[in-house]
Design brief:
about 600 residues, alpha/beta, Glutamine Phosphoribosylpyrophosphate, subunit 1, domain 1, Rossmann fold, 3 domains, about 20% strand, binds 5-amino-5-deoxy-1-O-phosphono-D-mannitol
Length: about 600
């Protein structure tokens, strides 16, 4: 989604702004721009497309500014174009604004401003903001911003500067993320920490309803009424290298290969020496696990697929009914929620608009809320009652990989923990599951060693028009995730089907050489999946099976078999998905796709 950066200090602002914007590229964008003060003029340079278009334009402009704001835009109101790109300014050209979020009442405000003689040049919702500030300006930028934001409904992270007060930046946060980087003789604003950690590791994370006035030597934090507030400085302990490619060609590949480590980070601190699960991060007493009557798991995309796995595991181990729903549906479905309901939201970014809205809805209806989330300090993390972090580290590639596997194992831990508290699991089953969880990082490592075989398989698939994924039980959910991964990075049409459902329609699409990837890791459904493989083979399909070591009879049925270590059915998911992630990656590479930034997609979907 949109990215904001801002700089005030003695260095060349434009260089810092463009570097910062590069670090925010992972958020997805379709245009970019900067505003800066040069030769006593507020100048704006912006361009549709990739950042290098902007950089080319900037090469012909002077670069002597010590203050500026920059933006990468992901279009919502108005197509991607130079005019719709940010920063936006007032007609006089002395105020510039960058914005992340959506102004819901902009049409109403626009009408009012037009009546007052303001002329609009873009189709964006954002343009009303510099005009409102202009209308309220009486010699104090901060005061006019306070008046302007009181008029706005919706979500807005803002970076604001004015030619009349060239030693000041204003930062505002409501429902879209914004941080302040605290430097020595310089200060920064940004949508996310990677944009500033080359220059500072000391950060203020703005909360909703907070704003800041930055000069090069000072940051004054305040609420939306201008009352000063105090905040703790957050010290960034992770290294920028962790947010970089670390020797891999792409973030997606790097993140796939990080899985053994991040799975350990997510699992091991939560398994005590006594072999029991400890969820020290949350106050489990007040969660009142014994009295939960129903659980909803709500999420989007890959996180939703993890939530489906969570449902099966909680129902199996903890014997509580679970409904897993897509957040954009859940929020409008009038779900049955009360104080005995636990709502679990799953989100890598913690900023997904629909998931956040689902969380707010459930809180309103008095449910207990728990999040499985990867980004510390994100909106979901801050608003939820209980938070369990997946310690996956920054996930930069748009396609989610390490976040998914960490979400799945964390949901498994949660299911087993609840089962233990409610005494719905016998000791042997609990111990067996823990033993398997302990070995998952090494098992993933083992599968990753078959990388070249998977690269080879991809070379048979990359020219396909359609690729189908089939599975039963938990394998169906793995099929859904494998299929999503393939389509989002390779643009090949793909569908995931419950294997038993094929014959009710989709089988008509299977013809000679259509690739079908069949998941066969669930022992009690193994024979059934073998029959489904035969069913598609009889129609000419080229079949690839994912099966557990030892289940060799499948070799006589499928054209190709990829083996994963033999683990209990319930915990096969984080292993079975690994070959599918690598197949998606290599197919995309062989098709020449921009794997880390697939077209039309954004890493963090902060609009509905
Ligand atoms: O940040 P979140 O986990 O809430 O994001 C949810 C989805 O947007 C995300 O998983 C998306 O489906 C990924 N691009 C899939 O790889």
């Amino acid at each position: 989604m949109c990215g904001i950066v801002g700089y005030i200090g003695d260095k060349h602002a434009i260089e810092l702004l463009t570097c910062g914007l590069e670090k925010l590229e992972y958020r997805g964008y379709d245009s970019a721009g900067v505003a800066f003060i040069d030769e006593n003029k507020l100048k704006i340079v912006k361009s549709k497309g990739r950042l290098n278009n902007l950089e080319e334009k900037l090469e012909v402009s002077p670069k002597h500014s010590h203050i500026g704001i920059g933006h990468t835009r992901w279009a919502t109101h108005g197509e991607p174009s130079d005019i719709n790109s940010h920063p936006h300014q007032n007609k006089k050209g002395n105020i510039a604004v960058v914005h992340n979020g959506i102004i819901e009442n902009y049409l109403e405000i626009k009408e009012e401003l037009i009546k007052k003689g303001y002329e609009f040049v873009s189709e964006t919702d954002t343009e009303v903001i510099p005009y409102l500030i202009d209308m309220y300006y009486e010699g104090d930028l901060k005061e006019s911003v306070i008046k302007a934001i009181k008029r706005l409904k919706g979500s807005f992270a803002l970076g604001i500067m004015s030619l009349d007060e060239p030693d000041k930046l204003i930062a505002v946060r409501k429902d879209s993320p914004l941080i302040i980087g605290i430097g020595q003789g310089e200060n920064f604003i940004a949508s996310d920490i990677p944009a500033v950690i080359d220059w500072t590791r000391e950060i203020y994370i703005l909360e909703n309803g907070e704003m800041a006035e930055l000069t090069k030597d000072n940051v004054i934090l305040m609420d939306f009424d201008g009352n000063p507030i105090e905040k703790e400085v957050y010290k960034v302990t992770w290294n920028i290298d962790e947010a970089q490619k670390g020797g891999y060609d792409h973030f997606m590949l790097k993140e796939i290969f990080e899985q053994p480590k991040v799975l350990k980070d997510t699992l091991f601190p939560r398994i005590g020496n006594d072999g029991r699960i400890r969820l020290d991060d949350i106050d489990t007493n007040s969660l009142d696990i014994e009295n939960i009557e129903k659980i909803y798991i709500v999420a989007c995309g890959t996180a939703y697929h993890a939530g489906l796995v969570g449902k099966k595991l909680i129902e199996k181990y903890a014997k509580i009914p679970v409904i897993t729903d897509v957040a954009s549906e859940f929020r409008y479905n009038n779900p049955f929620i009360d104080e005995k309901t636990l709502l679990i939201v799953v989100s890598q970014s913690g900023e997904t608009a629909d998931t956040l809205a689902a969380l707010r809805l459930a809180k309103k209806k008095k449910a207990k809320t728990l999040a499985i989330c990867n980004v510390v300090g994100s909106s979901i993390a801050r608003e939820v009652d209980y938070i369990l972090y997946t310690w996956a580290g920054p996930e930069i590639a748009v396609a989610s990989t390490k976040a998914y596997t960490t979400q799945v194992v964390l949901l498994a831990l949660l299911a087993l923990y609840i089962a233990d508290v409610r005494k719905t699991i016998d000791e042997d089953e609990y111990k067996k599951a823990l033993e398997v969880l302990n070995s998952i990082p090494d098992d993933v490592e083992k599968i990753l060693r078959s990388k070249s075989k998977l690269e080879d398989i991809a070379s048979h698939l990359y020219k396909s028009r359609d690729i189908f994924y089939i599975g039963r039980g938990l394998d169906y959910y793995v099929a859904m995730e494998g299929s999503l991964k393939l389509k989002e990075v390779s643009y090949i049409h793909s569908e995931a089907m419950a294997a038993g459902e094929l014959k009710h329609g989709t089988l008509a699409l299977i013809e000679k050489d259509t690739p079908v990837i069949a998941l066969a890791t669930q022992d009690y459904l193994y024979d059934k999946v073998i029959s489904n493989i035969k069913e598609v083979k009889a129609r000419g399909a080229y079949t690839i099976a994912i099966a557990k070591e030892g289940n060799n009879e499948i070799e006589g049925v499928a054209d190709l078999v990829i083996y994963i270590p033999d683990v209990i059915n319930e915990l096969a998911v984080p292993l079975a998905i690994i070959p599918l992630q690598l197949i998606a990656y290599y197919v995309a590479i062989q098709r020449g796709c921009d794997v880390d930034k697939p077209r039309n997609l954004a890493k963090s979907v902060t609009v509905e």
